[in-house]
Amino acid sequence: MKTAIYCIATNRVQAETIVDRLKVSGFSSADISVLLPDQTGTRDFAHEQNTKLPEGAATGGVAGMGVGAILGWLTGIGTLAIPGVGPFIAAGPIMAALSGAALVGAAGGIIGGLVGMGIPEYEAKLYDGKIRGGNVLISVHTDNSDQAEIAKDIYKKAGAEDINSTSEASVS
After folding, report:
1. Which of 72, 76, 88, 103 has the fewest C-beta atoms under 10 angstroms from its C-beta?
2. Residue 90 near residue 104 (C-beta atoms within 8 A)
3. How confident is the model at residue 60 (pLDDT cuts 50, 70, 90)?
4. Is residue 127 pLDDT above 80, yes or no?
């Protein structure tokens, strides 16, 4: 039975540190999910704007999105517009869950996608608010309790917040 271990990184640098540590610890890029607001154009990413492709040229890609090499290593990374919520950068299993939620419309949104992944609704609401506030949701899918403890330890050592886990027995 797989378990997903979730946390909130308060900024992109912390998120990249966590993803890098997960990678070094042997987690597959296909088992790691990230979700963050696409703040391209904000002053947080102003130093990277010189590499931004002309508008439209990077649609669905990662070039110029303010995503560093560490996050770029993740599987299926791209932008996702959730109606009524805004643009996000997502990667890993969460991308598929949220793509389905985006097709349903704003009623599904982030909360619907997270609940669909097995996160309890009250936690999904907490994560939704934090992500909208500029934080980064990170999830890693683990195969056993040893991997789960390694992931939790990585999160704790990096100073991540709201560390939780959920069984994926009912998720295909």
Report:
1. 103
2. no
3. very low
4. yes
Residues 6+ apart with CB under 8 A from 24: none
SS3 of residue 42 by DSSP = coil
Q: Which residues pair with 3 in a beta bridge?
A: 142, 167
Q: pTM (2 decimals)?
A: 0.76
Which token pair is 53? 């492709």
What pLDDT does residue 43 have?
37
Sheet holding 161-167, edge to edge: 78-82, 86-91, 32-37, 136-142, 3-9, 161-167
Token pair belonging to 148 = 């789960």
Query: Which 8-state DSSP code applies to residue 2?
Result: -
149: CB partners within 8 A, 6+ apart:
none
